[in-house]
Amino acid sequence: MEENIIELKGVSRQYDTTLAVDNIDLSIKKGEFVTFLGPSGCGKTTTLRMIAGFETPTSGQILLGGKDITSIPPYKRPINTVFQRYALFPHMNVFDNIAYGLKLKKVVNVYEDAEGRRVEKKERLSKAEIAAKVEKALKMVDLEEFEKRDVTTLSGGQQQRVAIARAIVNEPEILLLDEPLGALDLKMRKDMQLELKEMHRKLGITFIYVTHDQEEALTMSDTIVVMNDGAIQQIGTPLDIYNEPKNAFVADFIGESNIFSGTIVGERKVKFVNRVFDCVDDFPLNEKVDVVVRPEDVIVTPPGEGYIDGTITSSIFKGVHYEMAFTVGKTEVIIQDTVEHKVGETVGIKIMPEGIHIMAKEFVSNKYDGYITKHNTVCFAEGEFECDVTTLVPGSHLDEEGYLITPEGEKLDLTDRDVEVEVGLKDIEIIDNDEDGDACGSIVSIIYKGDHYQVVIRTDEEEEDFVADTEYAWNEFDRVSVKIPADKIKLKFKQTEKK
Amino acid sequence: MRKHLCIPYSVFLVLFVVAPIFIMLFYAFTDAENHLTLDNFALIFTDITVLSAALASVSVALVATLICLLIAYPVAYILARSGIKRQNALLILFITPMWINFVMRINALKEFFGLINLLDKSPYINTIIGMVYDFLPFMILPLYTTLLKMDKNLIEASYDLGAGKFTTFVQVILPMSMPGIVSGITMVFMPAMTNYVVSDILGRSQITILGKLIENYFMQTNWNAGAAISMLLLAIMFVSTWLTGGFKDDGAQAARGGLW
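The joint structure predicted for all components is written out below.
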């Protein structure tokens, strides 16, 4: 039970210039239901396709039961796939679709010859065996007596079932499912989720499931692998992932969350929204942290009885609960409660220490490698920025020709000197077009942090990231440019080893 | 209101499609004195010139179509599925000959054959080469389109289920490209039966195919026999289109393989 059925070791996949999967290490146990979860383009499907054998990793190894299968073609792997758009053969009926793999399969049969010796023969399955297996698989997916039906006449849900039957009939060691429920309606999805879970229990084989739907992942999986940008963000049980997200991305992607910037101000004490809260996580004093509070962990109290008083600014009925926005000053907290509070009402809120999850802050500042130009500006992240080069050497000044004069009177030519550049998150100004700033790119991520947004702007060519805190909401894929005041660019000579 | 937009097309259809068919029907079933007769059809099935022309037409068209298919399929497959660079440029290279007037092309081919002393060898082979040269793009294009549209997932699904490259080709790719094969055959076989310019120029008029025969009859102002042969060709086309499923709904039916 505890043995690893599949292992990925340092697996990467590069397409031309983009790295779809970046050095992934992962091992999956036999019989597990593992879900790769992440937004589109995070590398989850590419990872699945490498396990199936449709893609070869550009580097790294894939082991199946300890054996290297990295370069084995898909038709020789004991792995079957349920495709996103079913991929049923339209020129075959249901029976022929499901029997496709069986007809190709060769099994070892043992016979006794005339002298009583054991003889092993590799044989194809007989027609009766195939028919029996197909029937069993159809029963498994509740499609008895559909054998003769034309697959093009089936509904989406039925096609999906045929696709599942076609895969499991081959008794694979691993079943791969690439967003198999993506094209079904909500009700059907819910039913199929439970059925797939039940099927997993009955078959006892390893399921690897790919989805971008966090709820689906939480419902079905034993283990969730959260991916973003081609890298694994967190691996854990649904409960772990939900309750103890490792970083702001995971917290934001899994369920609704309030994410605040905070500071550790004492032993198990964290300050955010201008107030000190008790918490259960231990972090070094003065550490800048991200604080995650799930909306259902915020307790609404009558005014004055909570930790903070504020106003309800919006309220939406969501079926079981109301989702409300609570605003104090510039900070907004999302609350879920079964009791409705009207917009404009003043209430207090309380958060128990167990409801506060603290994560080390991902970005405290942006760091780049750059160089100084002959005009004493600095180039980094595909942009040229005004800067104060005299900060490189304390007490220095520039002469008329633009040379840097050190306090010792030494004359330095800075042109092409490599420097380390540091820019604070709050010091980046985002401009709504890609011309007026000094460097431009597209917004690739935006996370709301209680009183501001944390925006990641990625440049086009070298894919350098600017992480910026801003009070304005931007949209993903917006084309923007950035401006940084000269005095906010911190420069340091790069420590180069002189050979 | 929208119905009125159909009027020009309907007029065109009646004037240039329906009416000529009836005129042809009239000539096919009458003699020179406009008396109803079946003699024209009797002539077709008894006259040795007509029968040999039909045989020549069918054999030339069959061989040319087969060669076209054998050349075009790999070409279309490589263009559509191998992911080679400059795919479009290559496709255009194969298609450009269509943009040059075909009489010009065939005459060029004739000059070329003369240069390598092939012209007097076999009128049949020359005609077939000319037909292949002439109609190859018509075979490549539908095949290319079908192969390009084919869902990559189906091929991957076949590999995934344990089929190697050859089995995948025979079981999945070939049956799925049937619509392209069928329309390619239709686009090549039918014109190859009647295109007498090729047989005139490259076969040096030593082969008479049905198209040529029709022309001959019309030149002799025997409109009735000409019309009857035309009707026969029309019937052949009708039957073969029906056999290949060309009249059925394109989508589901053609995807299932059509021909079989």
